[in-house]
Design a protein that fits this description.
- With 257 residues, the chain is α+β, with helices and mostly antiparallel strands.
- The chain has 2 domains: 119 residues, Alpha-D-Glucose-1,6-Bisphosphate, Chain A, domain 4, CATH 3.30.530.20; 131 residues, Nucleoside Triphosphate Pyrophosphohydrolase (Alpha-Beta Complex).
- Helix content is 24%, strand content 37%.
- The chain contains 4 helices and 12 strands.
- Strands 1-5-4-3-2 form a 5-stranded antiparallel beta sheet, covered by helices on one side. Strands 9-6-11-10 form a 4-stranded mixed beta sheet, sandwiched between helices.
- The chain is elongated and about 70 Å long.
- It binds 8-OXO-2'-deoxyguanosine-5'-triphosphate.
- InterPro entries: MutT-like (IPR047127), Nudix_hydrolase (IPR020476), NUDIX_hydrolase-like_dom_sf (IPR015797), NUDIX_hydrolase_dom (IPR000086).
- Its cofactor is Mg(2+).
- It is an enzyme of class 3 (hydrolase).
- It comes from Modestobacter marinus.
């Protein structure tokens, strides 16, 4: 049947949500979609992407809704695409359906962005710093206690309620390392599977920033060891597993500058 379907129209929507990836994804899933067509899930890759389809139940048109979630410095960019195809060339219902979908999506996206930002207040976020020195090395830290003791991580910690993320990064580096840092650029975000600050398992993420030490002398106030690593040494370290997807971005920073 799909071989005979012809494109009728495509809609695209881009929304910046002030929430970490996992919250942006989970709230989008919980709210569903703003139209009555029953949808079947085709793909779900939390928190990156999902695709749903309204199959051609009565034989004349189908609707595919694709959603992707990208981490940015300002929050999660949610890109959505609606593809409508029909079995009849020149199908006349297209313009009406298009208008209805656009109106429904606009109202839905306003409500969605607000709901995600509200929910983000209830989820503890973790920030980390990839601190790079003049010799193209990055600072890594070994956790000294707790269930992840012995594993390596980026210095950082939990963002406090109401605290701006970058302020939390500066505060954590001062507390843990005794140094002042200047954040430079956002590097990426990964979901954390475990419980953070007593929250729902898998709700939190780690957001990593590139930064430089601009004041003070390094002291390991909370870690058992600190090391400066070059690009070739990154992969071999015994990392907290959640951090590994961030390593290519850090490596690029050390190699390309
Ligand atoms: N700082 C940091 N935490 C990480 C990384 N990867 C990772 O999974 N985590 C997890 C471990 C913890 O569950 C959580 C961070 O908690 P934390 O204990 O360091 O936070 P904190 O400094 O605010 O600690 P505390 O005051 O509550 O003791 O994030 C990483 O690279 N850096």
């Amino acid at each position: 049947m799909s071989a005979t379907l012809l494109p009728v129209f495509q809609l695209r929507f881009t929304t910046l949500v002030e929430a970490p990836l996992t919250v942006a994804f989970d709230v989008a899933r919980a709210l569903g979609r703003p139209w009555p067509h029953p949808l079947q899930e085709v793909v779900s890759e939390r928190p990156w992407r999902d695709v749903h389809v309204a199959p051609p139940g009565n034989g004349w048109r189908t609707l595919v809704h694709t959603r992707s979630f990208t981490a940015t410095a300002a929050g999660t960019l949610v890109e959505e695409q609606v593809d409508v195809e029909a079995a009849l060339p020149g199908w006349l219902g297209g313009p009406t359906l298009r208008r209805r979908l656009v109106r429904a999506m606009q109202a839905h996206l306003d409500a969605y962005a607000a709901a995600a930002a509200r929910r983000a207040q209830e989820v503890t976020q973790v920030v980390g710093a990839a601190l790079v020195d003049d010799r193209q090395r990055v600072l890594v830290a070994q956790r000294g206690s707790g269930p992840l003791a012995g594993l390596w991580e980026f210095p950082g910690g939990k963002v406090e309620p109401g605290e701006p993320e970058v302020a939390a990064l500066v505060r954590e580096c001062r507390e843990e390392l005794g140094v002042g840092i200047t954040p430079r650029a956002f590097l990426g975000e990964v979901p954390l599977d475990g419980v953070v600050a007593g929250g729902v398992p898998g709700a939190s993420t780690l957001r990593l920033w590139w930064g430089r030490i601009t004041a003070g002398e390094l002291v390991a106030h909370e870690h058992s060891e600190l090391r400066w690593l070059g690009p070739e040494e990154l992969e071999d370290l015994d990392w907290i597993p959640a951090d590994r997807p961030l390593l290519p971005a850090v490596r690029a920073l050390l190699v390309d500058r």
